Amino acid sequence: MSKPSLMHADTIRRSRYAPHALATTLTLALALSGCGQKPEEPAAEPAVAAAAPKVEAAICQASSSWISNPNPPPEIAAAETFCDFYQFSWQWFLAQTSPANGGSERVFEQNRLMNPNVKSGQCSLPALLGRASAAKMLAARDDKPLGLEDTQADGNAMYDQNGNLLYYNMWYSQAMCESTQQGFASGTFEIKVAWKVLPAPDPTYYSMQATLPGGTAPVTLGMVGFHLANWTQNHPEMIWATFEHKTNAPLCDGSSPLPASGWSFASNDAAACLTANPQPTSGPPNAACDSFKFNTPDKFAAPPPPATNTPDNICRQFAHGNQPGESVNGNNNASNLLAIQQLNDQLVGANGMLTQLPDSNPMAIWKNYEMIGALWTKGGASSGNAPVPNAGGPADPTSPQRGSLELANMSMETFQQGATSFIPNCFGCHNFNTATPLNVSHICDNLFSVDSTGKNCVIPSTGENAAAAPAAPATAEKK
To answer: Is residue 402 predicted with pLDDT exceeding 50?
Structure first.
């Protein structure tokens, strides 16, 4: 991304009011995968991103132990293949979404909860823990221009097909509070979750009860998105992985079959238009569907936006955040896509390990979700400019970015997709520079403090801002 685009992203960050799994199971005899290739090597025979690519190597393997006995690794395997990064991300997702101490809550809910109303020094305060605390922290989040409950990464409100706003929470690890000015501590991670209001209980969603900001009665919220950013010694830029509910939104190219329950973020008529007017490759929807105003947010005169509004119609431009064809920076897009698809197929496909669990198993709920993709840099380098065309400039062939180069979660970066966006992927906002490694996190300011420029996170010397002992979790209502 060019310099103007990074400046634009920084404005979005700092201004308070700135605006398929595999279609069929791959057979072992075919022996397909991108796991044996380094991310930086160009694809020999690149394929269109939305189709199952054809590259030869071994299957990227999932393990049932990730579900039954989760023990996520602290670092990416030494070979650093695409498969390694996605195995790492799935293991961390399943570990964080597993039951906590045999109770009704999940491990991620036992991490420290970011309080959007506290501007700095949160690591020196008693920790907010538990689902009941999360239900109370839906009101706002400082690093979003209009507040966490109303907006996404670009500051726009998002409304589901029932006309309800999406809501958000943010968690971070206790280890993050042990960081220094030189960088984050081992074990640092951040989790962001997007929720939609469920009009009636729906067993396909992980859910919680909450009283919405300004509301008086509790409602049921269903998880629609899950961001996981992991810091490791070799990857201080963080490994940005994202997961979604399978029925969030269709692909813009018209290839997505309509779910029995419909899409959360697109009307049946809008989805039918995409199907009737398919596109030959990834990217924006066919102009024949312009009347549905896909991926176009409503603008409001002043914050906050209303809690209900006309539903948005959303479609995903790039399957699993993956470009069609070969990337200009050597990212092997076909191998990247295949590793994602193979793990999704083994875990949440028709015969997947999670899919085959009985409904009574607390991990069975995750069969309704899938990995969209992940993003990182080669060798943990500064993220630099984007290797894809964007509103800030052309694709940079020297970019060290690897993985799903057009990565976007439809519940969080909905309106920042494709060549017209200044923020084509996570690094558009979370720009990483080895000289200022803390700034990759947008909540670092809230946990510690910020310098006089308002741009750089500052961690006081040891002892001045030590993390307080965690408080006992508040009593939560069961799912």
So the answer is: yes
